[in-house]
Design a protein that fits this description.
Helix content is 9%, strand content 29%. It has helices at 49-58, 157-166, 254-263, and strands at residues 4-7, 15-22, 29-35, 38-42, 66-68, 80-82, 114-116, 127-133, 136-143, 146-149, 187-188, 191-193, 207-209, 222-230, 233-240, 243-247, 269-273, 285-287, 319-322. The strands form four sheets. Strands 1, 2, 3, 4, 5, 6 and 7 form a seven-stranded mixed beta sheet that branches. Keywords: Disulfide bond, Glycoprotein, Repeat, Signal.
Length: 329
């Protein structure tokens, strides 16, 4: 069995080693760690894909498909060296990740961790663009050896930044609906991706169950102005997950309004209004504390607290007056 040896920067100049045991290849199996000359295991408390990514990288095995627990590859023996490992996913070695400390745990070998089939055949953890070029197209994610489309209603600027970084494609320029590069006939990914924007791979981002019935191939992100005397003035309303909702006025400014006006082909912003200037909306408040630079092509590409996360009510609904509107408004 191949073992990658890494020199560690301990004061005692010891050497720590890592290997995967009992898997179908050298790139899958139970994680074992050599510390102080003795092989031991890692407890699964807190074990996730970010931790597995560091192991796979250190063993020159590509990216992780799964991070397994409960002694999936059999119970180990000897000391349990690590518990509550906390990697960001970008560390060069598992030892650089936070943990409860060497040998400190409340675990037994029934909770030994494993890494499943780190992939060497893909340049990323399983992300590709289809129907365009390497850096543009319909986004698909590899899950359980099946390529799946990603619902555009559940994908935002932070998610896009991670995909572009993972594919070595620079900064994102525009998020388009799936139909822009052919709808495709792949199965729809049923998890909502919630990246912070600094992850190295999309598979390291947190996910939550998505409303599958609201994620069809023909679903588009929508934006409109309501309650004004023109289509270019009114309360900002956003279509997300098939439901229209509003934008909270907290932090709403001309840079944010500029993106709305541009997206609706309404010229430049004249005013960015809050406190339900155009009347209170109803339904969900989709966006709060939005932070646009003003150059984004769509409101969806601006940073915010996340879809539906707010401490707001409809008395603070945001509104916009754009330049392409009657002066009587």
């Amino acid at each position: 069995m191949a073992v990658i040896t890494v020199k560690m920067l301990e004061s005692s100049a010891q050497v720590s080693c890592y290997k995967l045991v009992n898997g179908s290849s050298r790139c899958s199996g139970r994680v074992e760690v050599n510390h102080r000359g003795q092989w031991g295991t890692v407890c699964d408390d807190g074990w996730d894909l970010a931790d597995a990514a560091v192991v796979c990288r250190e063993l020159d095995c590509g990216e992780p498909v799964d991070a397994l627990s409960d002694a999936h590859f059999g119970s180990g023996s000897g000391p349990i060296w690590m518990s509550y490992v906390m990697c960001s996913g970008s560390e060069s070695t598992l030892k650089n990740c936070g943990s409860s400390g060497w040998g400190k745990h409340d675990c037994d070998h029934t909770k030994d961790v494993g890494c499943y089939q780190c992939l060497l055949i893909f340049l990323s953890s399983g992300v590709r663009m289809v129907g365009g070029s390497r850096c543009s197209g319909r986004l698909e994610i590899l899950h359980n050896q099946t390529w799946m489309s990603v619902c555009d209603a559940a994908f935002d600027q932070q998610d896009t930044e991670v995909v572009c970084r993972e594919l070595d494609c620079g900064a994102p320029v525009q998020v388009l609906g799936a139909a822009a590069f052919d709808k495709g006939d792949t199965q729809m990914w049923t998890q909502e991706i919630q990246c912070r924007g600094n992850e190295s791979q999309i598979h390291l981002c947190p996910t939550s169950p998505s409303h599958e019935n609201n994620c069809y191939h023909d679903k588009e992100f929508g934006l409109m102005l309501v309650g004004g005397h023109s289509r270019c003035a009114g309360r900002v309303e956003v279509l997300h997950r098939g439901q229209w909702g509003t934008v909270c006025g907290d932090g709403w400014d001309l840079a944010d309004a500029a993106v709305v006006c541009r997206e609706l082909d309404c010229g430049e912003p004249v005013d960015a209004l809050s406190d339900a200037h155009f009347g209170q909306g109803s339904g969900p408040i989709w966006i709060n504390y939005i932070e646009c630079s003003g150059s984004e092509s769509t409101l969806k590409m601006c940073r915010s607290r996340g879809w539906g996360k707010h401490d707001c009510d409809h008395s603070k609904d945001a509104g916009v007056i754009c330049s392409d509107v009657d002066v009587s408004v």
